[in-house]
Amino acid sequence: MLARADRAYYAEARPIMSDREYDDLLKELAALEAAHPELDDPSSPTKRVGAEAVSAFASAEHAVPMLSIDNTYKLDEAEESLAAWHQRTLRALEAGRVDLVADAKIDGVAMSLRYEGGKLVRALTRGDGTRGDDVTHNVRTIRSVPLVLEGDGVPRVLEIRGEVYFPLKEFERVNAEREAEGEELFANPRNAAAGTLKQLDPRITARRRLGFAAHGRGEVSGGGFAESHTAFLRRLTELGVPVNAPLAATADIGRVIAAVREFDERRKRQPYAIDGVVVRVDSFALQERLGVTSKSPRWVVAYKYPAERTTTVLLRVDHQVGKTGKITPRAVMKPVLLAGTTVQHATLHNYGRIRDALTDPDDPTSPRTDIRIGDTVYVEKAGEIIPYVPGVVLSKRPKNAERIGAPRVCPECGGTVEVEPPGTDGTAEETQRFCVNPECPAQVREKLIWFAGRKQMDIEGLGEKTVDQIRAQSSVPLASFADIFRLARHREALVGLDRMGEKKVDNLLAGIEQAKGRGMARLLAGMGIRHVGDSTARALARVFKDVDALLAAPESLLRPKTLKKDEARAANLPEDPKDRPETGLGADTAPVVHAYLHSASARRTFKELRELGVDLSSREYAAPGAAGRSGPLSGKTIVLTGTLASYERDPLSRILEGLGAKVSGSVSSKTSLVIAGENAGSKLDKARELGVEVWDEARLLGELKEWGIAAG
Predict the structure, then answer these.
(1) CA atoms within 13 Å, Cβ hemisphere of 398
(2) Which listed residue, of 259, 350, 653, 675, carries a Cα 20 to 30 Å from 458's Cα?
(3) Count of beta carbons in the 10 Å neighbourhood of residue 80
C-alpha cells in the first residue's frame, strides 16, 4: 500500500491518502518488521533512510555514457537556431519530416538509476559522462524514486536517466530553517540538490525531500520495451516512475518553437526550477542513425531561458548575526521590480564574494572587482526565489563609492570573530565569518534552548516556549547560562507567568538543580562552543579532569595527535601519535576552542557557574596510564552500528562510557566489541572480517540488565 501511495502521488499525481495516513502506515510496517525480522526486505519503504553514513563516495562507469547537450541557445535566438538544427537533422536522415519531442529542462542534477530484476541497485551522478559518483544511499531516500518497479514487461536491466531536483516549496522550507539557525542560505535549488546528494549521511538527504523526474534512458536489456522517447515515458509511467511530460510532440518545427516560447511564462508556476527546453528526435532508431559527436548527441538540442535580471543601486550593507554566530552581509538597495515582486534586500553570501565580484555575470572569466556602497549592481532571483547580487556594473561606479569592510568584531556583542578558512583577514578565499561568543545577544535564545536540551543539560520543562515566555518578562533575567541557575531566585515571578503555576515551576527548578551535577562533558557540549559537539566534549572530558585543568592546558595539549615528537616529549606524551589521547580537536580547530576558553566571556561564564554550584568536574576522566574507568567494560573499545529500538546512539554511548568503555566511530584491529542493530552496514562486515566480537540488541540488553541498567 505504501509503494502504491508513492506511485499514486509521484507518478500519477492522484494521491490516495493523506501524509498523516502514510506516516501511520509506515510506523505500523516498521513495527511489524521489527517483530518479524525474518520478513526483512531491503526494498521496504522503511529502508529508504539507511542507518549508516558512508565514509566516502565510490565512482563507477556508466554502461552507456551520459553525454551533455552541447548546443544551447538563448530564447531570442531560438527560432533561427532551432530551425537550423532541424534542417541539419533532416539532411542527415535524408528525410522530409521527423517526429520531435520538446520537454522542460529541469534545473537539477543529472542522475542514472539502474534497476536489475526490477530492483534499484545503483544511482550514479553524470560525473564526467563516463564515470559518476555512486549516490545510491542518498537517492534511496527520495520517495518519488521507486525502489521496486511494479508492472509487466520490466527488462532484466533498465537504466533510467533523469533529474534529481529540489522542489521549490521544500527549498523555501530548508532555507527558512537555515536562516533561523544562522546558516548561509542555499544560493539556488540546483546547487542545493547537488550538495544534498553529496551528503555522507542519508538522513540529512531524507530531511530535504528531493524529487526525481525521468527524461531518458541508458542501458535497456532485450528489445521491445519502447521504440521512441514518448513510448519510453509512457512505459515508465506504467511502472510507477515519475516522468518529465512532453510539452509538444509533433513533426511541425513551428509548433515546437511556439511551445518553447509559450512555456517561458508557464515555467515560473511549476513546482521545480526550470531553465530551458530540450528538443529531441522521438524515434530511438533515428537517434542511433544520427549518432553523437565527441561529447554530445546530434539528435537533441537544448535552449536555456535567460535569468530575469535587473540593476539597482546598493545603498548600504547590514551585517546580520545568526543564531549560530554566523555573520552574513545583506544588501539594502533601491527598490526594484524583479520577477513580479519588489526587491529591496538581497544576500551577498559572504565577505569573500564582496571582495571578488564579477563584472559580467554571464562570463566567469570576466574581470573581477569588489562591491562598494553606491555601486550599480545586478540583481537576480535564484530559482525565481532568493534575490542575490551576481555582479557589479563597474562602468557606473561613482567616484565616492565606499568600500565594504568586513566586521573584525561581532557587530552585536563586540566579541571575537573567527574567519574561515583560517588565514589572512581580508582574503578573497574567505567563505564564512563567525562570532565565537556563545553568549552573544544575537545567539542567546537558541543557545539557551540548546543548553537545556535532553542531550545536553537535560533540564525538563525548559523548552523553547518556556524560554521565550521567561525572556518576555523584564523582571526575570534570562540572558546567559548562569541565569538559568539563578531562576530559583525568581520563583514567585515565574509562578505568576501565564500557564506556569506552582507545580510546573517547582518541577522546572528541580530539573535545574539536577542539571548542576551533569558534569563537564555535558556542560561543554551544551555551551555551543564552535567545534565542540557532544563527542568532542566527551573526548576532552576523558583527557582533562575538570574545567580548571582544561583552562590550564596550553593550546598544543588540546590537539595532542598533531604534535611533533619533540613537542610530545616536552609535554610528557608518547612519541607515537596513536598512543596519545584523543581530544577531537586538530590543528585548525584547537586554536579556535583555546581562544574561546581564554576569552573574558568564557572565564566569566565558568566563574559564575562554579559560584552557583554547577559541577565542573569530569565524569569521564581517566588518569594517564589507566586503562579506563573502573567497570565491566573497562579497557574495551566499542563501536556502535545500525539502528537500535531501545536506545539512541548518544545516550547509549554515555552508558557504555560510564561502564568504562571507549566508544569509537570506526572498526579496527583494536576494536573489542561491535554492537550491531538493524541495517548494520560496512562496520559489521569489517568486524566479521577481523574476527571482532559482535553483540546484537538482545545480547546488549541482557548484559545491561546484569549490570543493573534497564533498557531505554
Answers:
(1) 13
(2) 675
(3) 11
> Cell for 107?
534545473
H runs (alpha helix) in 544-628:
547-552, 565-570, 590-597, 600-611
DSSP category for residue 708:
T
At the fourth CATH level, the homologous superfamily of domain 444-515 is 5' to 3' exonuclease, C-terminal subdomain (1.10.150.20)
- Residue 387 phi/psi, 5-degree rounding, is -70, 135
Cβ within 8 Å of residue 38, ≥6 positions away: none
The pair phi, psi for residue 69, each rounded to 5°, is -90, 100
Strand intervals (E) in 339-443: 341-347, 357-358, 368-369, 372-373, 376-382, 386-392, 402-403, 417-420, 432-435
**Per-residue model confidence (pLDDT) at position 101:** 97
274-299 burial by CB neighbour count: b if 16+ within 10 A, else e?
bbbbbbbbbbbebbeebeeeeebbbb
**Pairing assessment for the beta strands 109-116 and 157-165 based on DSSP bridges:** antiparallel
In tens, the pLDDT along 306-341 reads 777 899 999 999 998 876 788 989 999 999 988 667
Q: What is the DSSP string of 100-158?
A: EEEEEEESSEEEEEEEETTEEEEEEE-TTSSEEEB-HHHHTT-TTS-SB--SS---SEE
* Per-residue pLDDT at 178: 76
Tallying the residues shown for the chain, one arrives at 712
Edge to edge, what strands does the sheet with 637-641 contain?
662-664, 637-641, 673-676, 693-695
CA angle at 286 for the pair 281 and 292, rounded to the nearest 5° = 80
Grid cell of 188 as nine digits: 539556488
The pLDDT value recorded for residue 395 is: 94
Q: Do 155 and 223 form a contact (C-beta atoms < 8 A)? A: no
CATH number of 637-706: 3.40.50.10190
Report the catalytic residues.
105
* C-alpha grid cell, residue 695: 553483540
Strand, helix or coil for residue 319: strand
What does the buried/exposed string (b/e) look like for 147-169 if buried means 16 or more CB atoms within 10 Å of the residue's CB?
bbbeeeebbebbbbbbbbbbbbe
User: Residues 125-167: pLDDT tens digits?
Assistant: 998 888 888 999 999 999 999 999 988 889 999 999 999 999 9
Contact 189, 171 (CB under 8 A): yes
Sign, CA dihedral 665-526-646-2, equals negative
Distance of CA 498 to the CA centre of its chain: 38
Asked if residue 167 lies in contact with residue 271, where contact means CB atoms within 8 angstroms, the answer is yes
In 3D space, the residue among 539, 706, 582 whose CA is nearest the CA of residue 632 turns out to be 706
Annotated domain spans of the chain: 48-55+68-304, 309-403, 444-515, 520-611, 637-706
C-alpha cell at 467: 524560554
Q: Check for a shared fold between 444-515 and 520-611.
A: yes
**Spatial separation of the C-alpha atoms in residues 326 and 443, rounded to whole Å:** 9
d(CA 368, CA 375): 14
Cα distances (angstroms) measured from residue 439 to each of 140, 327, 482, 599: 40, 15, 10, 12
Low-confidence ranges of the chain (pLDDT < 50): 51, 53, 55, 423-428, 625-629
Its CATH architecture, for the domain 520-611, is Orthogonal Bundle (1.10)
Superfamily of domain 309-403: Nucleic acid-binding proteins (2.40.50.140)
d(C-alpha 212, C-alpha 241), whole Å? 9
Q: How far apart are the first and last CA of the chain?
A: 32
Residue 480 φ then ψ, to 5°:
-155, 170
Rounded CA gap, 141 and 160, in Å?
17
Specify the 3-state DSSP secondary structure of 60.
strand
